């Protein structure tokens, strides 16, 4: 069904990137005797979050990254979480710290993210890293937007001078995505919940990047012929996973399109592995 020629295959690019990261980890292990360490903290029992975290652990183990997961109960206090982060900040063998989102309502997300040492912030969510990204300085970049860039790059889709329309303005995907595209010299439009005529904007796009979480938000008539369509949405139907794009119909018009699953999702994990290696090299390489 999705073996079409215009597919942006995140699954295979992610595999390639993980392979390269694995090689480099082996080399560094041989030459310097050090191994990257990734610590993931998850608070609460949400099944989807648990599944993502297991995926991250599995990927890390396969690449020779020492990974550790802290599974904390829903009732964990903010203070307890902050103390754990401080301890991990000071642990030499921990290169990356990731606090799985969302967090329970009684915990201040911003406070927790900014407690992570910026050099161990493999999500790229820390205020300092977000600021550096904004200023186009070298830093750890958010895994999903970074993965989207890599995916476009792998198909030689240049962003320079293109009109990139980002749908969704979240701190973790939409906003950094738009900023990275701007840094690549794209002309950017950010659409969000208060945008009046979404279709008007998406129809202008050379590249549409959607990260909202709404089934069939992007339909055929909203897309210009030959546009590149990147679907970051993940929606669970009873029997399957779908994105935010009406894939069946939009894929007939798009020159390139990501499937869900097998598009951006695997790239997020691959870039997390890449960031963990990078964080190690920067801090103790
Ligand atoms: N601090 C933090 N960092 C994150 O990076 C983060 C997070 N919190 N909270 C949740 C979201 C979601 N996320 C995904 C990762 C991989 C897939 C992925 O591998 N998806 C596969 C299939 C997944 C499946 O089958 O369930 C695919 O699209 O092909 C999806 C989603 C990372 N997130």
TrEMBL record:
Pathway terms, separated by semicolons: One-carbon metabolism; tetrahydrofolate interconversion
Binding annotation for NADP(+): 168-170, 193, 234
GO molecular function, one term: methenyltetrahydrofolate cyclohydrolase activity
UniProt entry tagged with the keyword Transmembrane helix: no
Record key words, sorted: Amino-acid biosynthesis, Histidine biosynthesis, Hydrolase, Methionine biosynthesis, Multifunctional enzyme, NADP, One-carbon metabolism, Oxidoreductase, Purine biosynthesis
Tetrahydrofolate dehydrogenase/cyclohydrolase NAD(P)-binding domain mapped to chain residues: 142-283
Pfam families cross-referenced by the UniProt entry: THF_DHG_CYH (PF00763), THF_DHG_CYH_C (PF02882)
CDD domains assigned to the protein according to its UniProt record, in alphabetical order: NAD_bind_m-THF_DH_Cyclohyd (cd01080)
Oligomer and partners: Homodimer.
Membership in a protein family: Belongs to the tetrahydrofolate dehydrogenase/cyclohydrolase family.
UniProt-listed NCBIfam families: PRK10792.1, PRK14186.1
Protein name: Bifunctional protein FolD
Organism: Proteinivorax hydrogeniformans
Lineage, broadest ranks: Bacteria, Bacillati, Bacillota, Clostridia, Eubacteriales
